[in-house]
Design goal:
The protein is an alpha/beta fold and 490 residues long. The chain folds into two domains: 2-238, Rossmann fold (3-Layer(aba) Sandwich); 251-489, P-loop containing nucleotide triphosphate hydrolases (Rossmann fold, 3-Layer(aba) Sandwich), CATH 3.40.50. Helix content is 31%, strand content 26%. A hairpin with an 8-residue loop joins β1 and β2. The radius of gyration is 23 Å and the shape is globular.
């Protein structure tokens, strides 16, 4: 009972380099296996091959084979495949088809031909297992990342596959929700023998649970490590894998460095850049998400917003971006501002739009360019040094080699880095970043935060970012707000 990978040769382009290049592995169902390694090493690609998503939907399998329980997943019909493997993506929005939680679960049951008379009981059991009965009639597009992953867990419970594959499933989930979902997955593993094959950059959730950790490098599995072996942590840390919550370089050392370069603007604590007054947001009647948000963010400051999944962080940022209607006030600029004066965000005119810059949880929804290079160059318009500046930015975030590739062919982690890079190319007064580092390895996490903080410091801009990584907030923010009970707390 296993997933067997034999000498896989797989690439995304017909004449391009292989992303998976000679990978061999046997993953046993009785073990919890975690695939880890630096961004771009092929972890998610290997998982997509095991799920049968590739090569039928993308890429070219040039050699080797994949077998799930002795069968080729790509050759299975969808009803058969979903009984063999179920997958939880980084971004659950990519998996949903219906409008509400209830309809999504009904749709899932219908796809495996559950007797209509049995669907209500099966639906009730799935909701109870995931502990989301209270979400049954909610619209999926109003849920937080953590709530959506719990809905996905309910769908997988209903499908009851032999294997569950997780691709950075906790990247956008708070610790409490991650612990809850993990407990449910382990329950399935122990009670039903469900296989767990997991991709993750951060191992703290898995360290005491995983039977084996497979380190991937350059499209191969370089070594397999037992977490309980002596020297296991040191071996992984030497390979650039984040095992625990180690401190980051932080904003203090970064500001010191760029001050010495003479390019930084220190925070001006007397000049408001963004003022929120009694701001509230409701997605559905009777379901207020934000009830009384009050805060002043000052020019040049860096602010972190933390809180459990579902507390409203993305809703707050969505209100600032114009995605959601809000009551109360959201005033951009302030007396003495070096920008273009004060303006209520809901009343901004076209000339004001460039004053606020956003990176959303789904950066692919923001892309404008046909290639990675064009996406960054769009910010420079017809400036004579546009190409040189774009190259500098893309080299810094490790995407220069993908410069002529469509942004939609990048991994989700790479798309996130591109979204951040494109934002930093615009001269914004306020930068708003929703989970800017999720699904990134430690090296890229530091590169993204340094790029954002450096850009903000050099132009005197204010930055707000949300995160589930408390260490990140402590090391890179001047001030941390906790969003709880519909309001912000210092």
């Amino acid at each position: 009972m296993s997933i067997e990978i034999s000498n896989i040769q797989f690439g995304y382009y017909e004449d391009g380099k292989n992303t998976i290049d000679g990978a061999n592995a046997v993953f046993a169902r009785e073990k919890v296996t975690v695939l880890t390694g630096k961004s771009g090493c092929g972890k998610s690609t290997l998982l997509y091959l095991a799920a049968g998503i590739y090569p039928s939907n993308a890429g070219f399998l040039r050699g080797g084979s994949v077998r799930v329980e002795g069968e080729d997943p790509a050759a299975m019909t969808p009803p058969v495949r979903c009984r063999k493997v179920g997958m939880m993506f980084q971004n659950p929005d990519l998996q949903f088809c219906m409008d509400t939680v209830r309809n999504e679960l009904i749709f899932t049951a219908e796809n495996i031909a559950v007797d209509p008379a049995e669907i209500p009981a099966r639906l009730e059991a799935a909701l109870a297992f995931a502990e989301i009965e209270y979400l049954e009639n909610r619209r999926l597009n109003t849920l937080s990342g953590g709530e959506k992953q719990k809905v996905m867990l309910a769908c997988l419970y209903l499908l009851d596959p032999a294997w569950m594959l997780l691709d950075e499933a906790f990247a956008n989930v708070d610790d409490a929700s991650a612990k809850q979902i993990l407990g449910k997955l382990l329950q399935l593993h122990e009670d039903k023998g469900t296989g767990l094959l997991v991709v993750d950059h951060r191992l703290e959730h898995w360290w005491d649970i995983a039977d084996e950790i497979c380190l991937m490098e350059d499209g191969k599995i370089a070594k397999t490590i037992c977490p309980r072996e002596e020297g296991a942590k040191a071996s992984l840390q030497a390979a650039g894998v984040q095992v625990g919550r180690d401190p980051y370089p932080g904003i203090v050392s970064l500001r010191t460095g760029i001050l010495e370069e003479g390019t930084a603007c220190m925070p001006d604590t007397d000049v408001p850049a963004l003022t929120l007054s009694h701001l509230s947001v409701s997605h559905e009647k009777g379901h207020p998400v934000l009830t009384d948000i009050n805060a002043t963010f000052y020019q040049g400051g860096i602010y972190a917003i933390v809180g459990q999944s579902g507390c409203g962080k993305s809703s707050l940022f969505g209100a600032l971006s114009g995605l959601y209607k809000y009551e109360g006030g959201a005033l951009l600029g302030g007396a003495g501002s070096t920008g273009s004066g004060q303006v209520e965000i809901r009343r901004m005119k076209r000339a004001d739009f460039g004053r606020l810059g956003f990176v959303t949880q789904s950066p692919q929804d923001q892309f404008l360019g046909g290639t990675v290079r064009q996406e960054v160059m769009a910010a420079f318009k017809k400036e004579p040094d546009a190409e040189a500046r774009s190259e500098q930015i893309l080299r810094h975030i490790g995407l220069w080699k993908y410069r002529d590739v469509s942004p939609y062919l990048l991994s989700q982690g790479q798309q996130r880095r591109l979204g951040v890079a494109a934002l930093m190319a615009y001269p914004c007064e306020v930068l708003v970043c929703d989970e800017p580092t999720y699904a990134q390895d430690r090296e890229n996490t530091i590169a993204i935060m340094e790029s954002l903080c450096r850009g903000a410091a050099q132009r005197g801009a204010t930055m707000l970012f949300s995160t589930h990584d408390r260490q990140l907030a402590e090391d890179y923010a001047d001030k941390i707000y906790t969003l709880e009970g519909g309001t912000l707390h210092e």
